[in-house]
Amino acid sequence: MPFSSNPIGRAGRWLRAEMAAHPVRFVLAVGALFTLAMVNVRLFAAPGPWWRGWADQKAYLESAQAFLALDLDPARHWYPLAYPLTGAPFAGLLAAPFVPVNIACFALAFAGFRKVALRLGVGSTGAVLLFLAATLLDPRIAKLWVEPWTTSLSAAAIWLSLGMVADRLAGEGSGAARAAMLGALLMLVPLVRPADAAVVAMIAPFALWRMLLRDLAAMAGAGLGLFATYAALHLAIYGARWSDYVLLSREYGLNFSDLPWKAYVLLVDPSAWFPGETGLLRTMPWLLIGAAGLLLGLATLRGAARALWLCLGLSALAYCAVLFAYVDLLPSGMWRYNNVHYFKWMLPLFALSVMLFVRWARAAPRRSMALIAALVLASCIRPDPVVVGPAAPARALRFAGSGAWTDIYMARSAISDARGLQRNFFEYHQVPHGSTQVIAVALKQPFAGNERWMTSAPAPAWPRGAPGHEAKLAFSPVPFARLGTNWHIAPPCWAWRCAALDGQTLAE
Known about the structure:
The protein has helices at residues 7-21, 23-39, 55-68, 82-87, 98-119, 124-136, 139-142, 150-169, 176-192, 197-208, 213-238, 244-252, 259-267, 280-283, 286-300, 303-325, 331-334, 346-361, 365-378, 405-409, 503-507, and strands at residues 381-387, 396-402, 414-417, 420-423, 428-433, 437-442, 452-454, 474-475, 481-489.
């Protein structure tokens, strides 16, 4: 049979032609088909899809339904308002009103990603394949584009902003209308997710570079106009005060002083401190090549492409610094509670960086291998637990105790020490270790000695909306081991599983 009459061959040629000619439409169709395949009839059925009972998703839905009913009761609006607003038009039609929103965000994120890829020498077909591989190939990541998360909207706004900046750096995309759109997008990002302001802080200088005064005025006007609209809605709902969500986030806070340790347990290997958990590099080792590509590109690219690559790298670096510093982001919640969705916008960037690294490595093999070796060596620097004395600062405590995993992890417990009171969730977090031990890991400041575990903290210690519940746990109130941090060089635990540290040995 001639190849031209082969239906598989014809389908393949049609797909390639469609990706090249209409890449955004192609990605929109793939995203829609994938989403509908996962959600199917549950999109319309009253009980809704699998996420309907989850706390965050229930809050999004309630806020969207309240907006549809013009109900501005603050009790019905927990999260920042932008993402629930997008679901409001569909809240009366679908059991899962954010499904069409997420499909649109998926395609819009690709539209911005494609512009960036084109400026770096990657064609439309390559951009499609990279984006789909980074977002849909891993089912654990793919479902995060189907489930309602605010990061779907922020990822779209971030990539659209980066795409417009890519055009500006290349000497195109000027004009008041485009500048106004860019200003609105940059303002939208922190309104959707306040922590993502770190990305905007990195993008803004590149967006403003050599901008005409007329364009600058349009950009500022659009951004401030969007902010004023959001502020008016905020005042109508909450009055002249922060929302409870913002107050709760401030209660968690940021701890930049522990960034090296936090980066290690999130990226490389958390098992010594969070038993049973794995780092992102073990799950997605290609991220290390992507990081090498971000560094190699700075030495390889020139002109506008280099400026764009620097913008991308700084955006990723600033974003990771804020995320890693956020006290509530822990290895124990990365996959169990889907906190990996915070990294959604970055995965296509790292996929693009992997592809470009392979391309650039052909011209500079020694430099490329040196970067890989340096990053692997950096991942060998490990902060392992070591027993410390009763008066020494301790990063973690080991208690004899038992209970269900969720009861231990989500308990509104507290630990008093020589410095004062520390609460589970906010100053430390407790996790089970086997069936007879519990580890309490300090997240803001070390334990100061003379520690005693308490079933619960006084009621005023818990802000409104705080997670957790009262749990009756059988703990020994005094830790049997206090653990400090021993930084040393050892084999990389993301490349192969390291032997677990034995709690009994440490206790001795």
